[in-house]
Amino acid sequence: MDVASYDLLSTAVLLLDNDGSIAYANAAAEELFGLSRRLLIGCGACKLFGADQALQARLPDAINGKFGILRQDLLVERPGGSLAISLAIVPLDDQPWSALLEARPIEQHILLDRHQQLGKELAAQRESLRNLAHEVKNPLGGIRGAAQLLEAELESDALRDYTRVIIAEADRLAALVDRLISPQGATLQKTWFNIHEICERVYTLIHAEFAQLGMVRDYDASVPDVYGDFPRLLQAYLNMARNAAQALSEGGAQAAPRLVLRTRIGRQLLLATHQARLAVVVAVIDNGPGVPAALNDKIFHPLVTGRPAGTGLGLSLAQEFVQQHGGVIEFDSRPGHSEFRMILPLE
Q1: How far apart are CA 203 and CA 323, in angstroms?
Q2: Strands (E) located in 140-251
Q3: pTM of the full predicted structure?
C-alpha cells in the first residue's frame, strides 16, 4: 500500500521504525492526537502512550514482530484533555517499517458497532416479516374475492356496507403486505441529481397535506450532487417528513408547530460499516413532543410506532432505502425538538 494512500483513511495510522519511533503519521492521526505531523514524526510511540505502563511493556514485542496488540480502552493525553481510544498494533514483515499502529476514538468504535448491530437486527426482522407477508397475501385475495361474491348476492344496501368494509380492509392489508415485500426486490436505479430536488418535492407534498404547519427551508446551496435511486431516496425523506408532520398535527408542539427541511455537508461521519470522509446530510427538524423514550432503541424496527393509527413501516422503510445507498438515518429527540438526519456518503 502506497504510504500516501493512508491519508485517505478516516482512522489514525502511525508507522513505527525499529526503535519504536514514529516514521509516518497520516492526517487523521494529526487530528486524533492533536499534534502536527512534524511533531509526531520522530516521537517515540512509548512517549505518546507514556501513561500506560502495560502498553509500554508490550510495545517492543510488537515492534520486533512477535505478536500484535489490541486495546479497546486506552486513555491518551493530548492538547485539550484526555481521550479514550481503541488501538491496534500490527507487526510488518518485509517492510521499511517495523509495525503499523491504528487508532480511533472509543466512542466512534462503540457507535460503529451499534450501527452494525442495528443493521443485522433490522435485516433479520425484515426477512421474517417478508416471509410472513407472503403467507398472508394469498388468503387476503381469497377473502376479498369471497366478499365481492357475497356483495353481489346481497339485496340489502345495509348488508352491502359490511362487505364493502371487508373489501376495503383487505385492500388496505394487501397494500401493507406489498410494502413489506417490495423494498428488497428491485435493484437500485442510480442517477446523478441535486438533493434539493427531493427536498422541494417533499416540501410541496407535506405542505399540501399539512397546510396548518409552519414549514421552513434551510438549504446549503454548496451541497454537491448525489448518485442514487431518486424514487427510493424521495420516499425515505418523505417518510421522515410525514412522520414529523403527523406528530405535529396531533397537537404535540409546545409552540406554533414548525417543521424544518435542512441540508448540509458532513465530514468524518460514522455510517453503518465505515466512517465517511464526506457526506450529504438531509435533516427533518420539528418542535413536536419528541420520540417516546421507550421507542428510542427500536424506532426503526418494522411495525414499531408511537401513534395509534400508525403502521410502523415509514421509518423502517426509510432506513432500509438509505442503508441500500451505504448511508444511515440517525436521530436526536427531546420534548420540543426532534431531528432526523439522512446521511448519504459521497465517496
Answers
A1: 23
A2: 190-193, 214-218, 226-229
A3: 0.56
Give the closest residue to 318 by CA, choosing from 214, 208, 244, 213.
244
Q: Mean pLDDT: which of 33-47, 102-116, 182-196 is highest? A: 33-47
Q: Looking at the structure, tell me whether residues 211 and 99 fall in a common domain.
A: no
The rounded distance, in Å, linking the Cα atoms of 259 and 121 is 30
Lowest mean per-residue pLDDT among 16-20, 27-31, 295-299: 295-299
Q: Residue 62 belongs to a domain with what CATH number? A: 3.30.450.20
Which contacts of 9-12 are long-range, i.e. CB under 8 A and separated by 24 or more positions?
10/268, 10/274, 10/275, 10/276, 10/277, 11/102, 11/103, 11/104, 11/275, 12/102, 12/103, 12/104
Q: Which of 183, 198, 216 represents a domain boundary (last residue)?
A: 183
Residue 294 confidence (pLDDT) above 80: no
222: part of which helix (H) or strand (E)? none
The boundaries of the domain holding residue 270 are 187-345
As for how many domains the chain has, the answer is 3
Residues 166 and 207 grouped into a single domain? no
Residue 331: which pLDDT band, with cuts at 50, 70 and 90? confident
What are the angstrom distances between the C-alpha of 227 and each of 40, 190, 234, 251?
A: 38, 6, 13, 38
Is the pLDDT score of 174 beyond 90?
no
Using one digit for the tens of pLDDT, what is the confidence trace for 337-346?
889 999 999 8
- Together in a domain, 88 and 133: no
